[in-house]
């Protein structure tokens, strides 16, 4: 019998027993999400660092903030087609991530910069209850 068919049957049985969303809890372990992100919080600010190596065209990165959600869309491209892969740990491809923020943020006070493969996003806590989804412009930081 085909081992992949056995795995598919096993997964179907697990879905039936635990529910269709059972595998969602393991998605990050089986296939890590991209891009990786670190978020740091103070009383009135959030500072996000997003790992996006090889980004040459900032227009191919979309960053949206809507109330308490940060949305990232784009692609991580590694253009290397020479030889046979021996080890491949750098994750790449098209991505779309929505991250729930710990508090609502202001749409009018957002700063995003890109340097050495990292996007830095600075967000400020929202005091009022208005909400608008805005695309964030990313600036390139020059080396000194």
From TrEMBL:
Pfam families: HSP20. It comes from the Bacteria. InterPro entries: A-crystallin/Hsp20_dom (IPR002068), HSP20-like_chaperone (IPR008978). Signal peptide: none annotated. Belongs to the small heat shock protein (HSP20) family. This is Heat-shock protein Hsp20.
């Amino acid at each position: 019998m085909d081992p992949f068919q056995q795995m598919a049957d096993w997964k179907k049985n697990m879905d039936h027993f635990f529910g269709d969303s059972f595998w969602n809890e393991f998605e990050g372990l089986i296939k890590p999400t991209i891009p990786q992100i670190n978020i740091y919080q103070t009383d009135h600010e959030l500072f996000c660092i997003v790992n996006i190596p090889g980004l040459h065209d900032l227009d191919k990165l979309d960053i949206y903030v809507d109330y308490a959600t940060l949305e990232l869309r784009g692609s991580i491209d590694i253009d290397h087609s020479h030889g046979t892969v021996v080890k491949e740990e750098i994750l790449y491809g098209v991505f779309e991530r929505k991250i729930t923020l710990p508090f609502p943020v202001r749409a009018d006070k957002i700063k995003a910069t890109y340097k050495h493969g990292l996007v830095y996003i600075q967000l400020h806590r929202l005091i009022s209850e208005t909400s608008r989804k805005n695309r964030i412009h990313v600036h390139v930081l020059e080396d000194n």
